[in-house]
């Protein structure tokens, strides 16, 4: 029944578009009047003539006059259209519908009821809408339909629009912060011969001209930015899209925005200080506060952030000492805790699986430090405890909200770790890293001490206390059959 009604409306509106053409009026002109102003400026100019543009949100006809509500991105104004003033152009009113884009010129007045209106002396159509807009009261209730028709969802949902504007501020403020600290913004390849910089399953594509398979990057150019450190750059960062062929959840997307920076002659201790300052700056700019309610956690970013140790925390929470536990014992413990795991996984992946479950109860913000080498193939070893690395992760509301470390710059150590990762990959671990021989070659030329850090848009979604799919403009969906 609803589909039948929709088709009737579409038919009527197509007919109105034809009638406009018959009158010599183009229902889809190329541009609006060159001199028009935002509605929020017009409504502050009572007694003056203004020209406004926007979409019709309501029409009320009363014989020889008509009232219409016009909205643009800045506000709403009532249009007052009279036959005696518009003459022949008044016939256009009967061909207008809610959803049409129009322009209108007239004097800005205040009615007896106190409503600011535009007493229209001239007007015209800019776009004839064919499909009716769902009512603002009922809107799109089905979540999947909201994502499929995101343009309608955004049109009806001012709160969502404001949220996504905050996201722009979020990335803009992070960029400003890094510029202020002397970092250079760079662009690195999205298509790679050898994927690296993270433990993740990549998307594969084919390059027709070169007739080779390539990977979409899974990190924000980590190994490329470190090549830039070899080349003599000292502070770089990149904000861009990266891709991981993994599951969908409240926290995970397959293509998303990430920032990574690399800083020469500094270590992970310097990085932690900079990142804590940056998070507080960005949160304040984007949300205007430092205290958040995230899921069931109260998170206060304003206090100095504490540190927790990877091995000690796992021992306290599970009784498992990962420095002494074998792969077999880890599998037994994961089974005991009813935590799903890949039975082919090596020790490092099993440790990581354990940790990802344990962290869900940590409110944060905290720095998690003391990661074992098995879970940190690109991080520098601690000099006083070489089985552990100079790495940290930020934990907020039970999830990882950033990852950084002192970068490994020993080419022999890096080559050996790549071999171990490649072995894991060959044995079936699709998230293990590939052996990037060219990167090892670059390290042999010499890379200075470097610290690096990365954070994704998951941080924004957590601060907004929303599903990450809710905080992107157009979430990926399966096509409808």
Count of helical regions? 14
Q: How many structural domains are formed by the residues?
A: 2
pLDDT below 50 for ≥5 consecutive residues: which ranges?
none
CATH topology of the largest domain: BirA Bifunctional Protein, domain 2
Strand content is: 15-25%
Oligomer: single chain
- Please tell me the CATH architecture of the largest domain by its name: 2-Layer Sandwich
Largest sheet: 8 strands, mixed
SSE class: alpha+beta
Task: Draw up the topology in text.
Blueprint: H1 2-22, H2 39-42, E1 49-62, E2 65-71, E3 76-82, H3 83-86, E4 101-110, E5 116-127, H4 143-148, H5 150-156, H6 158-180, E6 184-185, E7 191-192, E8 204-207, E9 212-216, H7 222-230, E10 235-243, E11 255-264, H8 268-287, E12 291-294, E13 297-300, E14 306-309, H9 310-318, H10 327-336, H11 347-358, E15 366-369, E16 391-396, E17 399-406, H12 411-426, H13 437-445, E18 450-456, H14 458-463
Parallel strand pairs: 3-5, 6-10, 14-15
Antiparallel strand pairs: 1-2, 1-4, 2-3, 4-5, 7-9, 8-9, 10-11, 11-18, 12-13, 15-16, 16-17, 17-18
Helix pairs in contact: 6-8, 7-13, 10-11, 12-13
């Amino acid at each position: 029944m609803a589909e039948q009604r929709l088709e009737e409306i579409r038919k009527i509106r197509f007919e109105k578009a034809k009638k406009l053409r018959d009158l010599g009026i183009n229902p889809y002109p190329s541009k609006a009047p060159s001199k028009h102003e935002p509605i929020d400026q017009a409504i502050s100019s009572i007694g003056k003539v203004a020209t406004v543009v926007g979409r019709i949100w309501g029409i009320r006809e009363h014989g020889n006059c008509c009232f219409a509500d016009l909205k643009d991105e800045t506000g709403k104004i009532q249009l007052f259209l009279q036959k005696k003033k518009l003459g022949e152009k008044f016939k256009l009113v009967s061909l207008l519908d809610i959803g049409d884009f129009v322009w209108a010129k007239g004097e800005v007045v205040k009615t007896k009821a106190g409503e600011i209106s535009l007493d229209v002396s001239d007007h015209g159509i800019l776009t004839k809408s064919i499909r009716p807009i769902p009512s603002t009261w009922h809107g799109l209730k089905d979540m999947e339909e909201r994502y499929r028709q995101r343009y309608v969802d955004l049109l009806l949902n001012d709160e969502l629009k404001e949220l996504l504007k905050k996201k722009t501020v979020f990335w803009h403020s992070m960029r400003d912060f890094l510029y202020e600290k002397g970092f250079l913004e760079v662009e690195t390849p999205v298509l790679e011969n050898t994927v690296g910089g993270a433990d993740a399953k990549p998307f594969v594509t084919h390059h027709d001209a070169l007739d080779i398979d390539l990977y979409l990057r899974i990190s924000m150019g980590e190994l490329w930015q470190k090549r830039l450190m070899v080349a003599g750059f000292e502070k770089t960062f990149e904000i861009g899209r990266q891709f991981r062929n993994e599951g969908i959840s409240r926290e995970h997307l397959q293509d998303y925005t990430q920032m990574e920076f690399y800083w020469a002659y500094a270590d992970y201790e310097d990085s932690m200080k900079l990142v804590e300052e940056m998070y507080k700056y960005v949160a304040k700019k984007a949300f205007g506060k430092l205290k958040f309610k995230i899921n069931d956690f109260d998170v206060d970013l304003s206090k100095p952030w504490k540190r927790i140790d990877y091995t000690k925390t796992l021992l306290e929470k599970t009784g498992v000492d990962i420095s002494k536990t074998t792969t077999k014992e880890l599998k037994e413990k994961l089974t005991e805790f009813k935590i799903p795991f890949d039975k082919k996984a090596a020790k490092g992946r099993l440790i990581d699986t354990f940790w990802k479950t344990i962290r869900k109860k940590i409110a944060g913000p905290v720095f998690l430090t003391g990661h074992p080498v098995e879970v940190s193939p690109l991080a520098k070893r601690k000099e006083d405890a070489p089985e552990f690395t100079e790495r940290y992760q930020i934990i907020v509301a039970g999830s990882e909200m950033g990852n950084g470390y002192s970068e490994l710059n020993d080419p022999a150590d890096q080559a050996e770790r790549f071999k171990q990762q490649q072995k894991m990959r060959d044995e079936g671990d699709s998230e293990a890293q590939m052996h990037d021989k060219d990167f090892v070659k670059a390290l042999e030329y010499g890379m200075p001490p470097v610290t690096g850090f990365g954070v994704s848009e998951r941080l924004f979604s957590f601060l907004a206390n929303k599903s990450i799919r809710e905080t992107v403009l157009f979430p990926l969906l399966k096509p409808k059959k």
